[in-house]
Amino acid sequence: MNFQNLGKIELYTFYLDVAFSSAKAKADSTRAKHFKDKLTKSKVVETERIKAVTRSLIKQLNRILKVFPFIDDLHPFYKELVKCTIDYYATKKSLGALKWVVNKVQVFSQLTISKIQKTRDIKKINEYRREFYGRVSSLFKQIKKDFLILEEARKIMRLYPIIKTSLFTVVITGFPNIGKTTLLYKLTGSKPEINSYAFTTKSINIGYLQENNKKIQILDTPGTLNRFNKMNNIEKQAFLAMKYCAKLIIYVFDLTEPYPLNKQVMLYEKIKKFDLPFIVYVSKTDILDIKKVEEFEKNYNAIKDIEEIKKSIFQFT
Predict the structure, then answer these.
(1) 149 and 19, same structural domain?
(2) For residues 284, 287, 289 and 295, what is the CA-based torsion angle, rounded to 10 degrees?
(3) Final residue belonging to a domain, choices 130, 157, 184
(4) Where would a tag sit more exposed on the chain, N or C end, judged by fewer CB atoms within 10 A?
(5) Residue 57, Cβ neighbours under 10 Å: how many?
């Protein structure tokens, strides 16, 4: 799912201004044509003006409704991410409010045009048009907060990772700054910026491993620091990726112990509760005592070789 294409949602006055400007241009071009009498001219000009406002407002609102994802139809990963990061119910209600206004604008437009066509009073024609303008302006004013709610939701959703939920997905996890992003690069060639401080991975990094006709998605998730009950939004992404996307987990141990080994083991045991196939990878083995690495490999059935990791991944697909 790609949320990066969600366009900015403006203040309610923006959409009215665009619609009324479009209507004025349409009225001016229509007024320049030849008509048999003033009554006919007034009817045609004001009808075209109302149609132009209606088209513009409905087009603008439908554009928002079309590009904004229908939350209940999202993949569980994104649906739960929405619930964790934005006001789920307020967003649904705001989208419903836009749909309500679309229907109301159509109804008011049809009623007003019908009144204009039936009247013989030129003054009434202008009165009906002003009444229509007032009604649609009132409608948009009623939902002005909904535009703000949707824009706030859009800003957050644009930061969501672009995960292909249909692909076989491997999640790399473990503590921060222990070599997860480096492993992603070695496996896939994807090279995000890597720094030497904790929480380097600010969100989920994504790479792809392909062999013959098999394409595997690999997610490098932010470190959790073993705080499952106090997750921030970035950590929630990692948790939800493991819960709803992962078909295989690679847990990274760092025996240089930037975090105590017993803490790394505790996190490992908690993540094993996802009940998914596991690969244990040992990072930074080039600076470790070989006997320490060999003993750990034996105890945890761990792997340090990248080609062996790749081979193991494909065996699970």
Answers:
(1) yes
(2) 0
(3) 157
(4) C
(5) 25
**Residue 219 is which amino acid?**
L
Beta-bridged to residue 251, according to DSSP, are 173, 280
CB 254 within 8 Å of CB 175: yes
d(CA 57, CA 50) in angstroms, rounded, equals: 11
Last residue of a domain, one of 157, 186, 203: 157
30 lies in the same domain as 106 = yes
What is the count of structural domains for the chain? 2
Residue 211 domain-assigned (yes or no): yes
- By the 10 Å C-beta count (0-12 exposed, 13-18 middle, 19+ buried), 158 is classed as middle
Contact between 91 and 11 under an 8 Å Cβ cutoff? The reply is no
| Domain shared by 215 and 299, yes or no | yes
The two counts, helices (H) then strands (E), for the chain are 11, 5
Provide the residue-wise pLDDT of the chain in tens; the chain has 317 residues.
678 888 899 999 999 999 999 999 999 999 888 888 999 999 999 999 999 999 999 999 999 999 888 888 899 999 999 988 899 999 999 999 999 999 999 999 999 999 999 999 999 999 999 999 999 999 999 999 999 999 999 999 988 888 999 999 999 999 888 889 899 999 998 765 544 344 444 678 899 998 888 899 999 988 665 555 577 777 788 889 999 999 999 999 999 999 999 999 999 998 888 889 999 999 998 888 889 989 999 999 999 899 999 999 999 88
* DSSP assignments along 166-216, one per residue: TSEEEEEESSTTSSHHHHHHHHH-------SSTT---S-EEEEEEETTEEE
